[in-house]
DNA sequence: GTGGTTCTTGACCGATCGTTCTGGAACGTT
DNA sequence: AACGTTCCAGAACGATCGGTCAAGAACCAC
């Protein structure tokens, strides 16, 4: 019925994510997006609406894909699974391909669209905390983890560690420091003396 | 010899800090600064140079004043001193007066002036880590803290906790979560089972 | 091929950005 | 009182911002 699009929407969103993630919302101009995606301004606006709408779409896409507990292998014994998880946090935050840190956290701490992103982050944090606490209780009941401390508080420690790692990684802090710190948080969860 | 200034430089910098901290560099326009400080544009430029120079001056001022270990009371027994320290981290980051979080961390994770702020942050982090590790060793030798784990790694855990708290506080995360998490990190340092 | 619809292109809009300039007011010195 | 200097107020600068418009090109259905 009409002329088909000459671009792949997913690819455009991916490029836009790269820009927004590395430079932030304000510092990314529409011209930058035009240059990076190859689309013209009118095509961008026609396909995604204004800059805010595009950003929201990009953020939704990121949130949908990112899973804080994705690296938690439930087939492994708890200590190894958790070890792999926190390692994945550090490596993911320090990954040289793509910008460092967490795009959602960056958005929620910057000014633009803050309240919206903050709500998403709050929900994500609450969800991660709840799932982690449930996991700890479950594995504790299975005898894989020591008793004693409140699983909820331990989950909270891990979540704060995760975000500290993401934030500091974006700030350029050395990976070795983040690795050591997260290992130490994990040691507490595992009850290592 | 000439007409004296009608404004207090410290007060102007303080107001500028408030704006930059709450909105970030990009989202703070010169007009905003003019409105908030009461100065005219020409006076601002005459006194501080351009926007970048003003921002740098504001950042330097903040860094100079902020002391991550300022709340560490060395006259107290180590457990109480550390407890007060991490509590001060949380309360400081969540303080309703003024913007939440850490201005230096915000700057280092945003795009603008990133490399410069990142270097300052890296130096601050390294310094805090070193001093904390030394403190832990010292108090460990005095019998106030348990042996076993590497003081350097424990210091790193605390530093990452501190920044996780600051970052999440800025993102609007509930204070109770941050408090619980930092308490847990502290428990690890204190060797609480 | 023709009509209808959508896409693409590039020029263009007003608004706002950071910055500078000009004119005049306010002060210390002589 | 008169000078020289510095400060203040506001207009104005070019550049860039996000966003739109008009015209032509590309496609599908018929």
Which pair of protein chains has the largest interface, and what are the residue counts?
A: A-B, 55 and 55 residues
Task: Flag low-confidence runs of chain A.
Answer: none
Give the oligomeric state: homodimer
* Class of secondary structure makeup of chain A: mainly alpha
- Characterize the largest beta sheet of chain A: strand count, sense, and whether it forms a barrel: none
The fraction of residues assigned to DSSP E strands of chain A is under 5%
> Separation of termini of chain A?
70 Å
Shape of chain A: elongated
Helix content estimate of chain A: 55-70%
Compute the CA-based radius of gyration of chain A: 19 Å
Q: Count up the helices of chain A.
A: 9
Q: What is the strand tally of chain A?
A: 0
Order of helices and strands of chain A: HHHHHHHHH
* Average of per-residue pLDDT values of chain A: 94
Task: Explain what you see.
Two copies of one chain form a homodimer. By secondary structure, chain A is mainly α. Chain A contains nine helices and no strands. The first copy, chain A, has helices spanning 9-23, 30-37, 41-48, 51-65, 78-94, 103-109, 114-141, 151-170, 175-190. In chain A, helix 1 (9-23) crosses helix 4 (51-65). Chain A is elongated and about 65 Å long. In chain A, 40% of the residues are buried. The model of chain A has no long low-confidence stretch (mean pLDDT 94). At the A-B interface, helix 6, helix 7, helix 8 and helix 9 of A face helix 6, helix 7, helix 8 and helix 9 of B. Chain A binds a DNA duplex (30 and 30 nucleotides) through residues 1-6, 29-31, 39-43, 45-47, 50-51.
